[in-house]
Amino acid sequence: MSKQSRIISLFAIACVIALAAAALSAGDGPAFRPTEKAFYADQALVNFVRPGLAFKITKAEIAADGTVTAWVSMTDPKGMGLDREGIVTPGVISASFLIGYIPGNNVPYVSYITRSRTGAAGTVTQATGESNGKWSKIAEGSYTYTFSNKVPASYDKTATHTVAVYGSRNLDEFELGRNYSDAVYNFVPNGAPVTVVRDIIRTQSCNNCHDSLGMHGGSRKSMEVCNICHTPQTPSSAEGVTTDMRVMIHKIHFGANLPSVKAGKKYTVAGNDYSTVGFPAPAMACKACHQDKSAAGATQASNYLANPTRSACGSCHDDVNFATGENHAGMPQFSDNQCKNCHQPKGELDFDTSISGAHTVPIESSLVAGVVAKIIAVDNVAPGKSPVLTFSLNDKKGNPIDIKTITSLRVYMSGPATDIPSYIREDVLKAEGPGDGRYFWTMAAKLPADAKGAWQFGMEGYRTTTVLAGTQKQRSIRDYTPNSVFWAAAGGGPVTPRRTVVSTQNCNKCHYVLEFHGGNRNDAQMCTFCHNPNLVAGSEQTSWNYATMIHRYHGEEVAYPGRLNNCGQCHTGNSQNLPLQDGLLPVKNGLAPINPTGATTNACLSCHNTTLAWQHAASNTTSLGESCAVCHGANSQFSVSKVHAQ
Length: 646
Fold this sequence. Notes:
By secondary structure, the chain is α+β, with helices and mostly antiparallel strands. The chain contains 17 helices and 24 strands. The chain folds into four domains: 3-243, no CATH class; 286-362, no CATH class; 363-500, Immunoglobulin-like (Sandwich), CATH 2.60.40.10; 531-646, no CATH class. α1 (3-25) crosses α2 and α5 packs parallel to α9 (310-316).
């Protein structure tokens, strides 16, 4: 390179950096979040690197000889162009491309690009992408990509075609990790408007649980991209099973509950065993993923209701043999043409053979009236006194319920609410009231003589309801009430409720509806009564404290679908940050190297359960308490949010 060329290049880089810094400081566009490494990086470094990656395909066309060209932009989150080669702007960007078409309504994609793979199942052909085409630079961050693969001369110019790009930006040298992105572009080659799409489940629905989709190393981030390869066109080479999205996703999520798995077989794809996966939502809650348009925006969100198929339905009900009729009421089904004749979107009754009927979540059934128990007031909350509860019992329509029809109804009391040491539980089925849905209960238990602070009261209960009595569909439903939690100050005065660590709303993004212990415990705050720092079980005195149990379950015992280092997926109000609230009790745990364990150490090491971590905690704990917040406090160098950032 000549001296003049180097000067021009350096000047160009300086101009780009200056423009980027101006854009970053202007305050427009998305800001970095506390869950991202860039949020904590030096501002000068951020201005120089401009972390992030956003792909966009603005145009695609197919030439007369079948050559496919796509117009692609690569920008930072504020829309400033990025250099693909990492010369003018930091970070080399890798990109791969897909192209496929939709042969007709309600059918999967067909990819134009395929590959052969040989495995235990033999040699199979699979849909794939490419990255060996020709790049041409239009401007900084703006390129054309010409595919090396061509479409056949006989391709259907009237069909919807989709070009997709996926890839990453390497910022490892700046300690900002890899930035991932993908994008799709739909078009009809003859210039007609796009009317046929494959838009059944949106990425937003997946991310309720998965936090942020990032399959195959992180770069496949959207359902729109996944749909192009995961079709009947692509069997796995290891097992020979289909990776068609309709089949694979249902079977993966149903995993341990598949009839074939319960019969002793395994469900594996590409060497990965999904036979132990437990879907966190009720198995029949199709709408946990198939969210309606108002929730997630998918234009074909109701496709599963309107167009049942053997492949989709048989993926969960994999003990059905459609060829012979086994487990299908003895009725063979040789095509999908008549599926909707019997399996209509909605029938006349819950639990019938209609799709929505057969997948009725029991607690949501229209055949149960519903039970809503609510604590209205708690009086006489004072040291040495027996609290008096006023509560209501109504159905979902607000009609009063006779308490004599309730199967179980219990009230809990515990305090102080700073941290729950233990609880008292009483059956209140004998409570009396004036007949308008209100009832009164004077607790047999008394508050301790030295009681102070806020005390927590909770209520759980259910009514067993028999529906469709006398029919072959007769069943009993535990019609449970939403938990009611109420706080009152011992001796009067202002009430400071227990800190909110997680919210039921966050839990239900993944769980759809909490219904532990038969549905009795369905609110995160209600769980704190029993799962307190003193709760242990078994000969080993294993802790069942809330933080210990939940961290251990999600971190070790189940295949957590989100990113474990995104604490905000569950925690609310940055409750994961230190220091924790004063006055928290140490946690009893016979399995812990330090027993009892300080509240902070317990919360963190129930995930970071290593010998080195326990040694570190022990060396930073004295008779005066834990010093964790010195280094891991919210504004410290190693704050919880910072070390967990992506």
